[in-house]
Amino acid sequence: MTPRPVLPLVDVTLLASDRLEDRLAVAAALDQACAQTGFLYIRGAQLDAALFRRLLVRAEAYFSLDQATKMRSYIGGSENHSGYVPVGEEQFGVGTSDLKEAYDVNFDYLPATGRRPLLGPNIWPDMPGFREDVQAYYDHVTGIGRQLFRGFALALGLAENHFDAYLQNPPSQLRLIHYPFDASAEDRPGIGAHTDYECFTLLFATAPGLQIVDKNGDWVDVPLIEDTMIMNIGDMMEILSNGRYVATRHRVKKVPEERYSFALFHACDYDYVVAPAVRGEVPRYAPLKGGEHLFNQTAQTFAYLKRKVARGELVLADAVPLDSFGQRDMARA
Ligand SMILES: O=C(O)CCC(=O)C(=O)O
Ligand SMILES: [Fe+2]
To answer: Which residues of the chain have a pLDDT value below 70?
Structure first.
């Protein structure tokens, strides 16, 4: 029997070490794993399991509300693309919508100046405790993200603080996703095949279901490992690394049991221009404006934004097709 493909596992505890050589060792492990698969598990003393548990309780309570109540926080009514995403709102591919609902939380940007399409105040449901626990999780995981950005800087041969200046108000998004189980539902994907748009994603899920495309173009299951998060490379890190790390295509099929997943997509500041950062290499990617890329790709998959584009209320600048990154000639499903 062929052994099940297992993704690399990197312990990131020592990213918080005072000793540079410890941090360099984690960076080297991160580099190897990202160059190899673009998908890996991370574990570390930084991960606070209590925050995961609290988030799950809040998500379960929220998604069990009736539809009309959930729709009071509809994402289409927000200023910064935050709020409730009903089943069918998001579509990857023509004519297919995902069998999932979500609550999207963005960077909660309150100042009146400096707003951008994804940078503004969050909307929150009227549910005591939800905002506090979700924000605590967001702060916790974006904090781990900051350490990882430093790890990536070392891995790419840059100054360790290279990304710090571009992480002032990044529109990093946390998605609470609920995949309902419905045995009688048609066999449609929980989430269609895609790459993530940002630098990297940290994901925590309650059940298996995630699949990735391997180097041969085959879909393989990503099993869950206790006390780890799943991490993957997104479009922007593919560019930054000049293709050394590739944004791996992934999907969730129709789920065999109810499933929750929490994905935190780590971006740099909206106006940060993402370009290959590795010194001494000929750039293989054109630069793009990070926030604009994020918004453009979002506007190609969310129904409320597609309607705005169709009505001419929204004009996208320099949008690239959704499948511009990741393995180019592999199976699409
Ligand atoms: O639910 C999952 O495991 C994956 C979610 C995902 O890929 C996404 O939200 O981009
Ligand atoms: Fe994804």
So the answer is: 1-5, 93-97, 184-190, 328-333
Using the Cα atoms of residue 284, residue 285, residue 287 and residue 290 in order, give the sign of their dihedral.
negative
Point out the ligand 1 atom lying closest to the alpha carbon of residue 205: 3
Residues with CB under 5 A from ligand 2 (ion): 196
Rounded (10°) angle between helices 290-299 and 303-310: 90
Domain annotation covers residue 333 = no
Residue 322 lies in a domain: no
What lines the ligand 1 site, CB under 6 Å?
175, 177, 191, 196, 203, 205, 210, 250, 252, 261, 263
Pairing of strands 9-11, 39-43: parallel
Residues 10-24 have pLDDT tens digits of 999 999 999 999 999
Closest to 30 measured CA to CA, from 40, 17, 45: 40
Q: Which two tokens stand for residue 36?
A: 């190899």
Output the pTM of the full model.
Answer: 0.94
Contact of 276 with 239, CB cutoff 8 Å: yes
Q: How many domains does the chain have?
A: 1
For position 32, which CATH number holds?
A: 2.60.120.330
ipTM of the complex: 0.99
